[in-house]
Inverse folding.
């Protein structure tokens, strides 16, 4: 994604990952619902145009989604979809990519919670190479191009018992969407998305009062400077937090005082 779509996706991904990390519901089921929503929208050119039209008010798009999906998906999946359609997208296809990648992110959050994110990432790269290296498999997947569900079933059966179940689910989705991109490249795209996620740090931030955008940006910059990489923050309000701020990144636990000292010490070292 580029331009406006890149900005919009970063916003919806940040919100979705915070919700996923909050443990709201079954992530694997939510991922499959988001994939189904993307496919349902993709099945209607008129619906894709309506929901991706930058000139159409967000309220109209949200009303359309509610009328179609309120009784068909969970409140969590509906919320994710509403967040996507309420934003601006540069290309029609980007709205479908965004919904799909939110589903992918849900599965990766599940992998992270199980401690197998690195395994899933590595296996996805291996599946991509396996498809490239097998002329028969490539031909079979290409032959079922007009039947994406058949391709998904085919690859799922092949990977059953050979990879983690989350790897198999992600690979099946990669080949199970109607697209011009080759199956191996689709699986590789998901692997790279997993790699990007694994390189980021995740911080659980509890504050006595809500942080405004400036405070969030400043805190994110401090954490990124400490860890040398992007830090995704999951923000929660807890009036009982001593000192007004509590941050946990992996096994590291900070309060506002400790964080301020680290920030000053780093500035002095750089200077």
């Amino acid at each position: 994604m580029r331009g406006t779509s890149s900005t919009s996706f970063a916003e919806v991904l940040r919100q979705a990952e915070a919700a996923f990390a909050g443990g709201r519901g079954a992530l694997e089921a939510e991922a499959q619902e988001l994939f189904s929503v993307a496919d349902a929208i993709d099945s209607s050119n008129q619906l894709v145009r309506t929901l991706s039209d930058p000139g159409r008010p967000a309220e109209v798009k949200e009303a359309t989604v509610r009328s179609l999906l309120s009784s068909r998906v969970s409140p969590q999946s509906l919320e994710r979809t509403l967040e996507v359609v309420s934003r601006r997208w540069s290309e029609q296809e980007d709205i479908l990519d965004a919904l799909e990648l939110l589903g992918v992110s849900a599965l990766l959050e599940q992998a992270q919670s199980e401690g197998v994110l690195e395994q899933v990432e590595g296996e996805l790269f291996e599946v991509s190479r396996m498809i490239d290296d097998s002329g028969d498999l490539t031909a079979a997947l290409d032959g079922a191009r007009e039947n994406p569900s058949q391709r998904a079933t085919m690859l799922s059966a092949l990977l059953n018992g050979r990879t983690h179940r989350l790897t198999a689910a992600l690979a099946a989705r990669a080949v199970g969407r109607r697209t011009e991109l080759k199956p191996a490249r689709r699986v590789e795209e998901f692997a790279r998305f997993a790699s990007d996620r694994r390189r980021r740090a995740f911080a659980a931030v509890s504050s006595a009062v809500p942080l405004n955008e400036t405070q969030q940006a400043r805190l994110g910059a401090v954490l990124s400077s400490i860890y040398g990489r992007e830090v995704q923050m999951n923000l929660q309000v807890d009036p009982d937090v001593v000192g007004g701020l509590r941050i946990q990144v992996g096994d590291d636990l900070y309060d506002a005082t400790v964080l301020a000292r680290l920030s000053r010490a780093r500035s002095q070292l750089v200077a």
Summary: The beta strands are 201-207, 231-237, 245-249, 252-255. The mean pLDDT is 87.
